[in-house]
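Support request from a user on the community tier.

User writes: "When I paste my C-alpha coordinates into the form, the page sometimes reloads and wipes my input. The last time it worked, I copied everything first. Here is what I submitted, just in case something in the input itself triggers the reload:"
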Protein backbone atom coordinates (compact mmCIF):
# COMPACT_ATOMS: atom_id res chain seq x y z
CA UNK A 1 0.00 0.00 0.00
CA UNK A 2 1.24 3.48 -0.87
CA UNK A 3 0.12 6.76 0.62
CA UNK A 4 -0.12 9.67 -1.79
CA UNK A 5 0.31 13.07 -0.17
CA UNK A 6 -0.66 15.98 -2.36
CA UNK A 7 0.83 19.24 -1.15
CA UNK A 8 -1.03 22.26 -2.45
CA UNK A 9 0.00 25.88 -2.41
CA UNK A 10 -3.27 27.80 -2.53
CA UNK A 11 -4.31 31.42 -2.86
CA UNK A 12 -5.02 32.38 0.77
CA UNK A 13 -7.89 34.63 -0.32
CA UNK A 14 -9.67 31.61 -1.83
CA UNK A 15 -9.61 29.15 1.06
CA UNK A 16 -13.39 28.62 0.75
CA UNK A 17 -12.97 27.61 -2.91
CA UNK A 18 -10.30 25.08 -1.91
CA UNK A 19 -12.62 23.67 0.75
CA UNK A 20 -15.37 23.17 -1.87
CA UNK A 21 -12.84 21.46 -4.14
CA UNK A 22 -11.76 19.19 -1.28
CA UNK A 23 -15.34 18.22 -0.38
CA UNK A 24 -15.98 17.23 -4.01
CA UNK A 25 -13.02 14.83 -3.91
CA UNK A 26 -14.59 13.24 -0.83
CA UNK A 27 -17.04 11.58 -3.21
CA UNK A 28 -15.01 11.18 -6.41
CA UNK A 29 -11.79 9.72 -5.00
CA UNK A 30 -13.28 6.70 -3.17
CA UNK A 31 -15.63 5.75 -5.99
CA UNK A 32 -12.68 5.63 -8.39
CA UNK A 33 -10.53 3.30 -6.35
CA UNK A 34 -8.46 5.12 -3.73
CA UNK A 35 -8.94 5.19 0.03
CA UNK A 36 -9.26 8.87 0.93
CA UNK A 37 -7.77 9.73 4.31
CA UNK A 38 -8.74 13.38 4.01
CA UNK A 39 -8.16 16.87 2.72
CA UNK A 40 -6.68 19.47 5.03
CA UNK A 41 -7.02 23.24 4.65
CA UNK A 42 -4.94 25.95 6.34
CA UNK A 43 -5.96 26.79 9.88
CA UNK A 44 -2.98 28.06 11.93
CA UNK A 45 0.46 28.96 10.69
CA UNK A 46 0.78 29.01 6.93
CA UNK A 47 -2.25 30.33 5.11
CA UNK A 48 -1.14 28.86 1.79
CA UNK A 49 -0.43 25.17 2.46
CA UNK A 50 -3.10 22.49 2.13
CA UNK A 51 -2.96 18.71 1.75
CA UNK A 52 -4.89 15.82 0.26
CA UNK A 53 -3.96 12.32 1.49
CA UNK A 54 -5.11 8.95 0.20
CA UNK A 55 -3.97 5.33 0.03
CA UNK A 56 -3.61 3.35 -3.18
CA UNK A 57 -2.48 -0.24 -3.67
CA UNK A 58 0.53 0.46 -5.92
CA UNK A 59 1.66 2.69 -8.80
CA UNK A 60 -0.13 0.57 -11.41
CA UNK A 61 -3.38 0.97 -9.44
CA UNK A 62 -2.64 4.70 -9.20
CA UNK A 63 -2.40 5.03 -13.00
CA UNK A 64 -5.72 3.21 -13.47
CA UNK A 65 -7.33 5.31 -10.72
CA UNK A 66 -6.15 8.57 -12.34
CA UNK A 67 -7.61 7.48 -15.69
CA UNK A 68 -10.97 6.67 -14.06
CA UNK A 69 -10.93 9.96 -12.13
CA UNK A 70 -10.32 11.93 -15.34
CA UNK A 71 -13.45 10.31 -16.86
CA UNK A 72 -15.61 10.67 -13.75
CA UNK A 73 -18.22 13.47 -14.18
CA UNK A 74 -17.53 14.94 -10.72
CA UNK A 75 -13.79 14.57 -11.28
CA UNK A 76 -13.97 16.51 -14.57
CA UNK A 77 -16.22 19.10 -12.96
CA UNK A 78 -13.82 19.53 -10.04
CA UNK A 79 -10.77 19.92 -12.30
CA UNK A 80 -12.71 22.60 -14.25
CA UNK A 81 -13.73 24.32 -11.00
CA UNK A 82 -10.07 24.58 -9.96
CA UNK A 83 -9.07 26.00 -13.35
CA UNK A 84 -11.93 28.48 -13.36
CA UNK A 85 -11.26 29.83 -9.85
CA UNK A 86 -7.44 29.58 -10.02
CA UNK A 87 -6.97 28.96 -6.30
CA UNK A 88 -4.33 26.25 -6.81
CA UNK A 89 -0.93 27.85 -7.30
CA UNK A 90 1.12 24.66 -7.03
CA UNK A 91 0.44 20.95 -6.60
CA UNK A 92 3.08 18.34 -5.71
CA UNK A 93 2.54 14.60 -5.18
CA UNK A 94 4.70 12.37 -3.02
CA UNK A 95 4.21 8.62 -2.63
CA UNK A 96 5.21 7.15 0.71
CA UNK A 97 5.32 3.59 2.01
CA UNK A 98 4.42 3.02 5.66
CA UNK A 99 7.25 1.37 7.59
CA UNK A 100 5.92 1.62 11.17
CA UNK A 101 2.57 1.92 12.91
CA UNK A 102 -0.76 0.24 12.32
CA UNK A 103 -0.77 -2.27 9.45
CA UNK A 104 2.90 -1.63 8.59
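"...and here is what came back when it finally went through:"
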Amino acid sequence: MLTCIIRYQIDPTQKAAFETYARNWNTAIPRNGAQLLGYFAPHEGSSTLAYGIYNIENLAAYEAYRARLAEDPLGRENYAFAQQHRFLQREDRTFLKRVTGENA
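Agent notes: The reload is a front-end session timeout and is unrelated to the input. The first strand starts at residue 2 and ends at 10. The chain has one domain: 2-95. Escalated to web team.
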